[in-house]
Structure formats: C-alpha cells, structure tokens
Amino acid sequence: MSPTFPLRVMVQDVWDEIAFDLPVATTLAELKRRALELTRVRHDPAGYMLKFRGAELMDESRSLGEAGLVANGALIVLPRRRRPIR
Questions:
Q1: What pTM does this model have?
Q2: Whole-number pLDDT of residue 1
C-alpha cells in the first residue's frame, strides 16, 4: 500500500475548498484536474494554475512528494488570466 498525502485545495472560481487524501505519486496536473472536476468547473485545466504558499507550481508533471508540499498544506487553483472587475 502506498502512502497517502492529505491536502486542501481551494478553487477560486467557486470559492470552494476540497480535502484530498491522495497517493504521494499523484501528479500536480492530476490534482488540479480532480479539483476542477469536483467543483464542476468545466473549463480546460490548462487555463488554470496551481499555487502553493503564493508561488506557482510550474512543473505539473511532478508528483506531490517531489513538489515539496507539506501534509495538510493548502493549495489554490486559479485562472491563468486575470478577469476584469466591473
């Protein structure tokens, strides 16, 4: 049995937070895709970025263990392009 990694992910489009407990080998791209899917955001995941402690996690092919995340760490998924405020 592989070890798991507990994380919290906030999806900005819906301001919803999801708790995950995923295998350490899960890629960052898969984490982002699952977070968008579970919050019913139907846009292309490539149009979103994943941030941890304010910094974008650029290489989404890395696993949770390789990315330097911490247990119960908080991540945010937000659009790559800013949206105008009206």
A1: 0.88
A2: 47
Contact at 8 Å (CB) between 24 and 2? yes
d(CA 68, CA 44): 25
Question: Distance of CA 82 to CAs 12, 23, 45, Å?
Answer: 12, 32, 15
Instruction: Classify strands 16-23 and 48-52 as parallel, antiparallel or unpaired.
Output: unpaired
CA–CA distance, 30 with 64 (Å, rounded to integer)? 10
- Taking the chain (86 residues) in runs of 10, the rounded mean pLDDT of each run is 84 93 94 96 94 94 92 93 74
Token duo for residue 81: 């392009």
- For the domain spanning 4-79, the CATH number is 3.10.20.90
Spans of all domains in the chain: 4-79
Q: Is-contact 38 46, C-beta < 8 A? A: no
